[in-house]
Specification:
Elements lengths: L9 H17 L1 H7 L9 H16 L7 H15 L2 H17 L8 H18 L8 H16 L5 H22 L1 H6 L4 H18 L26 E8 L5 H11 L1 E7 L3 E8 L2 H9 L3 E9 H12 L1
Antiparallel strand pairs: 1-3, 1-4, 2-3
Length: 311
Amino acid sequence: MLANEIGLSGQDLKRALEKAKLYLEKHIDEVNDLNVFPVPDGDTGINMFLTMESAVAAIENSKDTSAAAVSSAAARGALMGARGNSGIILSQILGGIAKGLEDKYTFSFHDFANALTIASEQAYQVVANPVEGTILTAIREASETASLIVKRGTSFTHAICSVVTQVKRTVKKTPDMLPVLKEAGVVDAGAKGLYYFFKGIERAVCRKYAEPGIAKTTRQVTTNTENERTYGFDVQFMIQGENLPFKEIRNKVAASGECPLVVGDESLIRVHVHTLNPDDILNYAHSKGTLKDIVVEDMDLQVQEQIERKV
């Protein structure tokens, strides 16, 4: 039995995360098309999916029935495979859930609600200048709703359905919170992606019908060397080493461009930043440790491609 009044096991959580990945995969194009903030480069859907795909790959062959072990492995996998702003924030949400379940063999909705509170806090902490009307608002209001539901003593099934309903409401009101969304006539892409994340979990918990297989989506990474730029490059990489100066690296990344995200610890750090000079931050990072998983995307070219697809 997947869900009951006692709670969920690690294998239940594994199936729920697998379903969340499928829902994100199914709606990649829809979420991509909503992507206008912070850069209209049309990749929020694919970034959230690739992050979730990495999380699920990390638990794919897990035989452990502990919720703590499964959530920890999924969070680590998400961090390793995180892509873009939305992907890194999603990895921190999964990291917060793992922290909330770190000593749990099985977990109740009360435990899950506490984990969502931690997830929300971690998501906000990783963003230098949090903006409402985004995925941050969606996870915060999801966690607040979960905490209120716990007091009513309802079942896990009804509780997760209520969380999904709240996230749907949050998504709908994001244009009223973020003018750039209202001007474009769309809801926030990251918030909508998080809705599908929770919708997948809901379907797994409620044991609804299984989704058909969906073909894997890939994206070609390209660069452009034109001098005149509006958006610059989306730069992502990991630094591996010993006693990495986390605060120094975080400050350097923040000073190098827009949308800086730096997460990890003294042995492994994942970095994301929008910058006009990718070589500068990459050379600096190389001086601190071993670089892995380097991705440099030309956002001006991505935006132009997105415009052409809509014409």
